[in-house]
Write a structure and sequence with these properties.
This protein is α+β, with helices and mostly antiparallel strands. The chain has ten helices and 21 strands.
Length: about 475
């Protein structure tokens, strides 16, 4: 559930949190909860329950109450039936027990799983929340004035609280780092795995002004990506339409009946494969080790650093277009995953003939559960063991306090996607902000290559030429 959410001031450890909840409810830590359990309104934790360990920003487990009003489609249905059909984060047995114990309540009353929902009902769910860790890399500041904060977002950190993430989000981290009255207002959107430039407004007017400019396409933006293989020479314009196949899995594909989309690409650099990679250890940057016995490998083609100018703004547009062109982002857990797309990674398949949507969805659904979600994965015993050590998946353990299934720490590629928001500029030339190239886009040790990019003239010119032709 989303919408309105309140939290109990999280204590340093889960045990202290349970004690605080028990005192608030009049219960001891060992009592079975038989009354409605909600965290106090306005109980936002200050300071945030962060701690740094193993290069990761972690959050101590805490109790959290989700509140949402009864939706029209829920009316006349039993509470347990709604949870079974709409909320899949936990097993149905957990939700039934939570309703019987009062952790799930309606209008702050203990009603049980057979309660029939009606218009105006407020459904509350208090849960013991376990947030995934994120990188401990700080949020960089590119520019700041009285109206706007321009930041360099680290990869792997979501912008807003969503799903399993709350305090480990850009908005909450900035609030924790600044005065209590600071209210971040993000003006542009970046996926969790994408790094780079973001605009954080300090007041409603500046937020509205910039958001309007972006929506009217009077702001140009450039990304840089690290892709598999040698990307073609010159400017490449991809006009393939994009269709959302599975919102739940974040899967989008090129489809003739999709929404129109256009991206201009240009190779910045190409770096050939090295000949000294070991088959028993990961390469630098976390790239999977080579397996010569498996035949010609996608990651044995070397890699390119590619500049990307999105003319439209479809979900996963750059990732989908690069995948279609046969040069997916090298560590993309969806579009460069051979366990999902097959040996050639399924490019240039606009009709879904090589891989049906149903097959792709089924394979993706296994990722992160009984298989790891990672790029260019192969069915090889050595590689399987390697990925088990480096990627996040179910650990087989549960929380002692709430029986929530626990995940292992995320691996390198769960924290990073080699896609970076490099530049934003006003089309009329009023302002321009550009971040440094990320480490993964710089020349590898011992090789020469560009350490920066030029202007946007060539990419913008390719758009004009495409329109004329």
């Amino acid at each position: 559930m989303v919408a309105q959410a309140t939290t109990l001031a999280a204590a340093a450890t889960a045990t202290e949190t349970v004690a605080a909840i028990g005192l608030a409810s009049g219960l001891s830590n060992t009592d079975h909860i038989t009354t409605v359990l909600t965290t106090p309104c306005g109980g936002d934790a200050s300071p945030r329950p962060y701690y740094i360990e193993g290069g990761l920003r972690r959050v101590a487990p805490y109790y959290y109450t989700y509140n949402t009003w009864c939706k029209e489609r829920w009316r006349g249905r039993r509470l347990i039936d709604v949870f079974e059909s709409e909320f899949r984060d936990r097993p149905l047995e957990y939700y039934r027990a939570a309703m019987e114990s009062g952790q799930v309540a309606v209008n702050s009353k203990h009603v049980g799983p057979d309660y029939v929902l009606s218009n105006g009902d407020l459904v509350s769910h208090t849960t013991h929340r376990h947030e995934p860790p994120v990188t401990a890399e700080p949020i960089g500041v590119i520019h700041e004035d009285e109206d706007m904060l321009v930041i360099n977002k680290p990869s792997g950190v979501p912008v807003h609280p969503a799903g399993r993430y709350n305090y480990n989000s850009v908005v909450e981290i900035l609030k924790a780092q600044r005065a209590d009255a600071f209210l971040p207002r993000p003006c542009n959107r970046l996926d969790r795995l994408t790094s780079g430039i973001m605009f954080i407004a300090k007041n409603n007017k500046s937020a509205g002004d910039l958001t309007l400019k972006i929506s009217k396409r009077t702001v140009r933006k450039e990304y840089v990506a690290r892709v598999i293989g040698r990307f073609p020479d010159g400017e490449v314009v991809c006009d393939q339409p994009i269709l959302q196949i599975s919102p739940k899995l974040g899967l989008n594909r090129v489809r003739a009946n999709g929404k129109s989309a256009r991206t201009v690409f240009k190779r910045l650099a190409y770096y050939p494969p090295t000949n000294h990679r070991s088959t028993s250890a990961p390469d630098v940057e976390g790239v999977m080790p080579s397996c010569p016995e498996s035949g010609p490998r996608k990651d044995q083609q070397g890699y390119s650093i590619v500049r990307c100018l999105p003319v439209t703004g479809r979900t996963h547009q750059l990732r989908v277009h690069l995948h279609f062109l046969g040069h997916p982002i090298q560590n993309d857990p969806i579009y460069a995953n051979q366990r999902v797309w097959g040996f050639d990674l399924g490019g240039n398949d606009p009709d879904g003939v090589q891989n049906t949507d149903e097959d792709i969805i089924a394979r993706l659904s296994r990722m992160g559960k009984d298989e790891v979600a990672d790029a260019v994965a192969y069915h090889d015993e050595m590689v399987d063991k390697y990925y088990e050590r480096k990627a996040e998946k179910m650990s087989g353990e549960v929380c002692d306090l709430c029986n929530t299934p626990l995940y292992t720490d995320p691996g390198t590629q769960e924290l990073s996607l080699w896609l970076h928001s490099l530049r934003y500029e006003d089309a009329d030339g009023a302002w321009s902000y550009c971040s440094p190239l990320p480490t993964w886009a710089l020349p590898p040790q011992g090789l020469d290559g560009p350490t920066g990019v030029g202007g946007l003239e060539d990419l913008v010119g390719a758009v004009r030429d495409a329109d004329i032709s």
